[in-house]
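input
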Amino acid sequence: MAFTLATWNINSVRLREALVAQLMAEETPDILCLQECKSPVESIPMEQFRALGYTHMVARGQKGYNGVAILSKLPITDAGDRDYAKLGHARHVAARLENGVVIHNCYVPAGGDIPDREQNVKFGQKLDFLTDMRDAFRADRPERSILVGDLNIAPREDDVWNHKALLKIVSHTPIEVQHLHDAQEAGAWVDVTRQDIPQGLLYSWWSYRSPDWDSADKGRRLDHIWATPDISAAAHGSRILRHVRGWTQPSDHAPVFATFDL
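output
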């Protein structure tokens, strides 16, 4: 069984319904995982997506904030969700394919602007979310699983435009990188994107604040695809669709793709 999977922080699925449909029509991933849907599940605009072949959906939503959805051409069943750090946010949902592979779609909190949990509650929530992920993976080591999503951390020096300049900027601080590493290590997750593209600058997010994001190219790799070791060797074809960041009224994230032969 071969399938192509994409993950994309869409920053409002209803506002950017046309962009989701465009990606579906042009790139035809078998499975599309969306984060920051900002919509109750019943308000996700499925009619157009179904017409494009995405007849299956597993999602968790809330009005105006957060929200995660797995849209699929392939049959999937709801494999539950976890309220990491007990925040009461719609930030995780899982779906199971017919071959037993479980796909986890995660949206880690951004963490605000100040990298200090004493001064910034949101930063503490981010660290707690990652700690809870770590503990969950230690207690129940995942198998035949894929984890995707906006993890809101660029862990490597070549995942950001300027490592030294961003060491004190939320998303690349050493404490965040360590927390992400601990969660990844606890589940023995393999970074599929870097397995396929081991070297070089690689970004999936460019700030709206940059008037010319493409020329400035001050990006960060915040969006990830991981797989457990028992299936990671089946992954290939990783790519980030940078040009999508330049579509009309875009998300500030670009979709990340990988193919699995399982």
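quick obs: The first strand starts at residue 2 and ends at 9.
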